[in-house]
Amino acid sequence: MSKGDSKAEEVKHELGEPETKPETPEPLIDLAPKDPIDTLLPQSSEKDIEDKPLTPDPEPVKEQVEDIPEDPLPDSTTSAAEISPLLKFSIGGVKDLLYWRDIKVSGVVFGLTLLVLLSLCCFSVVSVISYLTLSLLTVTVAFRLYKLVLQTLNGTQQPNPFQSLLDMEVTLSKDQIHKYADVILDHLNCTLVCTRDLVLVKNMVASLKFAVFMWLLTYIGCCFNGLTLLILGVIAAFVLPPIYEKYQVPIDNHYNLVAQKFAQVANAVRSKIPGAKPKTQ
After folding, report:
1. Boundaries of domain holding 242
2. How far apart (Å, rounded) are the C-alpha atoms in residues 281 and 278?
3. Is residue 207 part of a domain?
4. What whole-number distance in Å separates Cα of residue 86 and Cα of residue 165?
């Protein structure tokens, strides 16, 4: 080092100037993009990866939602009160009864109904009801005593043989009474309105038909009374449906011929009546 440089350093030292250190080069910044996943996850060595057992990922827990039963919507066509089992006699049941689907049931109903009607021809209503009730009591009491004797001999206890019938609901609620009363009232009002229209000649043709029907009933009433007509109606109801089911095709053909002849006669009669027009087919 020269003397001039040494003197300059001494002067700077005396003046308090900081000594200048040699500059060291700064490290270069790595600008390569790094994987964000690698930066977030902890680094593991290859040995740790080999030692770690492979386990399947746990399945996501499914939330079990219980099926909540929905309340059935109220049907507007059905009543809130249940109908008594004795009143659940649908049209299909009546049809099966008249067509003798079950011979035993149809035979019992037909026989009992005919027996009651024939008894009414010979005895009064009070006598028929009394005899029928006594007959029914005789059968039920005899059967009950028979079961009691069997229980005594066998030493067993058995329930009442008529328990199923005793458990049957035979009472009527107020809702049911109101329901059937409304139905009867509707039919009664319709009958009264139709009778008024026929008697007061609202429609000439309808009133004349009604007059002819009443005139025919006078002749029928001379030969039969109401009870006899009822007996004939019951017999026809249980006899004619099976016959019609067996010979339906020829009966329908003859019925169509008779209906056409009757329509021709009715049109001829309407043409003679002033103000009435014959029906066009």
Report:
1. 97-153+173-249
2. 9
3. yes
4. 11
